[in-house]
Design a protein that fits this description.
The protein has one domain. The chain has helices at 10-16, 21-44, 48-73, 81-93, 100-112, 122-125, 132-143, 146-159, 171-175, 181-200, 204-215, 217-230, 250-255, 264-269, 278-287, 300-307; strands spanning 244-246, 295-297. The chain is mainly α. Helix 2 packs antiparallel against helix 3 and helix 3 (48-73) crosses helix 5.
């Protein structure tokens, strides 16, 4: 049963669930336009500030591609399954070294078993709350590329069958590991990006403004997003308490939470609602008086304080 049926009528859910090819195309165009726009600003005015800004914007839009792949995994980005598959595989997943089919498999398990022992994402939330020092160490490993390098190396080794289970690397990480055609698609997509970046200014741009953001900023905001969704919430089957929605401002939406990913509780209530309708779903729940019972955070700073509230 869809958890949202406890709070919404069938007609309301149906109206929220309508897919739109126009919306899907617009979101993909917006994501890639921001990536190329950040690159263009750096090329037009190359300095340390525009470089750091480009890394942050591109890294956040790499997360945006992951979010749009998530939409495609729910067949919510476009009306047709074929368009969802093509966009999710080639325009979203392959450029960031992710696999739509593997992601869909474990992600639907996460929806079925949210915050239970069968939840494949439990290892992301169970360590929280932790101490400030522990959270700081995690974020430093992310932003310095240590996490990204470890996970990408694990993907490659797993793809080449050099290893089986990898210590310190979760089943979620390996769910997106390369194998067979997935490796080929990732190489093709990144080969195209390499050629585009080289044509625009030099081969090194792909390393500096695609690979570097993927290994650093992307990893950090991915962790923050994961913490916000299920970190330091109730370990229960209550859909209003085992998931969190974070009310994000414009800068947070630009750098941390693109494409309404912050409305995560609403997504769990009705998982097939397209992302652009999640604010509308939130408003409906507010009007019905439901939000007072929900896990809500006023921004990501509040989330990180809650996630690092343990004293020892």
């Amino acid at each position: 049963m869809t958890p949202g049926k406890a709070f919404l009528t069938t007609e309301e859910i149906r109206s929220l669930s309508a897919r739109s090819d126009l919306w899907g195309a617009a979101l993909l165009l917006h994501c890639w336009a921001l990536i190329l726009g950040a690159l263009a600003v750096f090329l037009w005015w190359p300095n340390a500030l525009t470089f750091v800004l480009a890394v942050m914007v591109i890294g956040s839009r790499q997360l945006g591609l992951a979010i749009l792949m998530h939409e495609a995994a729910h067949n919510a980005l476009f009306k047709s399954r074929k368009l969802n598959e093509f966009a999710g595989v080639w325009l979203c997943g392959a450029p960031i070294l992710a696999d739509l089919a593997s992601y869909r498999h474990y992600h639907l398990m996460h929806h079925r078993h949210t915050q239970t022992e069968q939840d494949p994402d439990l290892r992301l939330s169970k360590p929280f709350p932790t101490t400030r020092a522990s959270l700081r160490r995690k974020l430093i490993r992310d932003i310095t590329g240590q996490t990204g390098i470890k996970q990408r190396a694990a993907q490659v080794m797993f793809a080449l069958r050099l290893v089986g289970e990898i210590e310190g690397v979760s089943s979620q990480d390996l769910a997106q590991a390369f194998h067979g055609p997935v490796l080929t698609r990732a190489l093709v997509a990144n080969g195209v990006l390499f050629a585009v970046f080289w044509a625009l200014g030099g081969w090194w741009l792909w390393v500096a403004l695609w690979l570097l953001p993927l290994l650093t900023w992307f990893q950090m905001v991915l962790r923050i997003r994961n913490i916000a969704e299920h970190g330091a919430v109730e370990f229960s089957e209550d859909p209003l308490r085992n998931t969190r929605t974070t009310l994000a401002g414009p800068l947070e939406r630009l750098f941390l939470a693109p494409y309404w990913v912050n409305y995560h509780l609403e997504h769990h209530l009705v998982m097939h609602v397209p992302a652009h309708n999640l604010p509308r779903l939130h408003a409906m729940l507010r009007d019905k008086g439901v939000t007072g019972r929900m896990m809500l955070a006023e921004g990501y700073a509040q989330v990180l304080r809650a996630a690092s509230a343990r004293t020892a």
